Each structure stands twice: as C-alpha cells, then as structure tokens.
Fold:
Amino acid sequence: MLLDGKKLLITGVLMDSSIAFHVARLAQEQGAEVVLTSFGRTFRITQSIAKRLPVTPEVVELDVSNQEHLDTLAERLREHTDHLDGVLHSIGFAPAGAFDFLNATWEDAATALQVSAFSLKSLAVAALPLMSEGGSIVGLTLDAQQAWPVYDWMGVAKAAFESTNRYLARDLGPKGIRSNLVSAGPIATTAARSIPMFEQFERWGERSPLGWDLKDAEPAAKACVALLSDWFPATTGEIVHVDGGFHAMGF
Ligand code: NAD
Structure:
C-alpha cells in the first residue's frame, strides 16, 4: 500500500465534503495512521464526521491563528504518535469583506493572509519536532497566477501561500522534508460555498479537456496522497495541477 505505516497529521476535516476528509479516507485505505485537527465550535463536528472514516482518528485542537495552540501542538500530538511522516494543510478562511477587492480593509486582508497563507509556515514549524526523520508537507491552492471573479483577497492570499511553499521547500529540504501543493479545480465544499457567486466556477468543466466535476474531491485527494507517499522523493516546491487540464488551455 502507498502509505503503509505512515503517520500523518491531517488538518481541515470539517464535513465529509472537505477535501481533507477524502485525503484522510484514502490515506487510511492506503495503510496510514491519521490524526486530525479541528478547533473551536467546529471541533465536535469534526469528531462526529471522523466516525465516517474507515478508522475513527483522534482529533486535536488547532487554530492556526492561535500561537499557544501552535506552540503546544507537538507535545499534544506525542500523546497519539511518536513521529510524523506527513502533514496535510487543508485550511482556508477569509472574512466576507475580503471578497470585495477595492473595499476590503487591511483587517479583512490580514486575516485571509494569516489563516490561509502564513499558516503553512506556522503549521510546518509546529510539526517540525515530530519530523526529525524527514517527511512530506502538502497543501491545497486555487491557481494564483490569474485574477478570478470574486476570489479577491483570498486570491492574493493563495499567491502568498504558493510563495510560502517555495520558501518552505528551501528551508526544510536540508532536513529531508518536502513541501508541495495541489492546485485543485473548484469543489463544492463549505469553504467554497462561502465565496460569493461560487456558481460561476461551474463553467470550469467547459474549458477542461478532461472535464470537471465540482462534487468530486477524490482526484485532488488522490494527488495529495501521492505527494504524501514516498513516490515523489525528489520533488519539492512544486505545484501539481489537478484541475481537469484547465490551467493549460487558452480558449
Ligand atoms: P472546507 O471548508 O471543507 O475546509 C476548510 C477548513 O479550514 C475547515 O476544516 C476549517 O475548519 C479550516 N480552518 C479555517 N480556519 C482555520 C483556522 N484558523 N485554524 C485551523 N483550521 C481552520 O473546504 P475545502 O474546500 O476542503 O478547503 C480545504 C483547502 O482546499 C483550502 O485551503 C482551500 O482554499 C483549498 N482549495 C479549495 C478548493 C475548492 O474549490 N473547494 C479549490 C482549491 C483549493
């Protein structure tokens, strides 16, 4: 199996529509042991959704904007695992004001940047004490090379996120840790539905040579599992597109 014996930390399981839920499911099917994170009011929801996985995993508290949570993460994880082979960052949030580009406040933009971009660095550093034997960090982006209708400061945050991935690859490579992103096409999750006019993304399939199903998180999740495995040993700082081929097409 692709992840036989691997120990993974998976953030971002909110509902069974979450991309992270499908990564956790496939990872367990491929032999991994998984610990989830959640926070605040969503903690109990994650605990209940976790029961739908093949094996019910432990859930630990982690709000990536809470420094105390980050500082104590490794210590709290040691109750469940002695090390980590991989970490999935599947976290995104921006306040409603961040989806109005010209009128957004710095507070709106700053929250988007902290929770959706800086958090990749925060999570990696928090997990580092458990990754002394190396491993793989994987995150999820929506292609930040172009401006989208309505994505606005979340799009700017994704550009920062993609750059953060490259700097993490630079600084963690010598420790044997790879950092890569999956650039997924639109998927109808809770976070996606909070984007105004998300239904505009329904046209994605028309420009994708392979077509695109907004209800299917599995293609993106499979790529995450592959990147978490030992089958990309010399790949880091990379962005793998799982978007039906949309990014490679003109008209
Ligand atoms: P989702 O709503 O299921 O997951 C988002 C997760 O972020 C939730 O579990 C939420 O609890 C978590 N989160 C928010 N603020 C947090 C904080 N302060 N600390 C810790 N966790 C926090 O949605 P999703 O679509 O599965 O999103 C997962 C990732 O995939 C995000 O980075 C998103 O930008 C990315 N992505 C999504 C799409 C899409 O169309 N759904 C496309 C490309 C990339």
